[in-house]
Amino acid sequence: MTNSRPELHTCFSPALLRLYDAANAIVVIVDVLRATSTITTALYNGSKYVIPVDSVAKSIELGKQIDCITAGERDGRIAEGLKYGNSPFEYPRSFVEGKILVLTTTNGTRLLHMAIDKGAQQIITGSFPNLTAVSDYLLSANKDVILGCAAWKDRVNLEDLLFAGAIINRVKNKFHINCDSSQISETLYLDARNDFYEFLKEKKASHFQRLLGYGLEKDIRYCLTPDVANVLPFYEDGKLIIHNG
Ligand code: MLT
User: Fold this and answer.
1) CA-105 nearest atom, ligand 1
2) Atom of ligand 1 lying closest to residue 35 CA
3) In the CATH scheme, what architecture does the domain 8-242 have?
4) Measured on CA atoms in the order 245, 28, 138, 142, is the torsion positive or negative?
5) Ligand 1 centroid – CA 194 distance (Å)
6) Pocket residues for ligand 1 (CB within 6 Å)?
7) Helix (H) and strand (E) counts for the chain?
8) What is residue 94's three-state secondary structure?
9) Residue in 36, 50, 73, 152 to alter for ligand 1 test, most ligand atoms within 8 A of Cβ
10) Where do the structural domains in the chain lie, given as residue ranges?
11) Which of these, 24, 34, 42, 205, has the minimum number of CB atoms within 10 Å of its CB?
12) Residue 161's CB: how many other CB atoms inside 10 A?
């Protein structure tokens, strides 16, 4: 009997993206701490669109060409030469509404550009703040899915796996899943779901500890909260815009 359900895979690191067939799939870029949480927050708060760029130089260059907010992060801090960083709290409605946000980050926007280079059929971004928007879209799209974890400099991050697991837990009945990375992600999610923050703390998750060291507990707690910025960022013509319908 042939299986007509679409396939779902979880890719733990940008270094593994080459193993997956992005050209025939929706690639969900997952960078829970914090790029994809910040992107959905900026759009939820009324940003016109977000331009994800892969270098600080491009962000600065675009800032000279168009009226926009140039933002970027390297190693968890505001990138040198840019005024704004990658905290969701930097983009309240009072600041970001109606504006274009140009953003570059260490891992999240890097993976997004890798997915573009691989010719991904569709690219969306996922994080806990838009968990339901992402899972609803994947349930309705009826296409193969790659949950692409941005990780940290190609090394696996627990928090991205927790989000992948949360998605899998919601959508698995509609997909054919023959992927151990997806099984691992859902197992971790089921173990952590009562308190993601405590789970990451107990496991000494590396980027969690890095951000905590910078005094960013508030960012972490926000980025682990489901559905507080529940829109679907969709990549089209160089921009991330809210997908409607
Ligand atoms: C990234 O893209 O590497 C991150 O979102 C890092 C961060 O700002 O926490």
Assistant:
1) 2
2) 5
3) Alpha-Beta Complex (3.90)
4) positive
5) 24
6) 31, 33-35, 73, 76, 86, 105-108, 150, 211
7) 10, 10
8) helix
9) 73
10) 8-242
11) 24
12) 27
**Rounded-to-5 percentages of helix, strand, coil across the chain:** 45, 20, 35
Per the listing, tokens 């969900």 go with 28
Strand 144-149 and strand 100-104: the pairing is unpaired
Report the separation in Å between the CA atom of 72 and the middle of ligand 1, taken as the mean of its atom positions.
9
Ligand 1 centroid–CA 75 distance in Å is 7
Residues forming beta bridges with residue 7, ordered by sequence position = 176
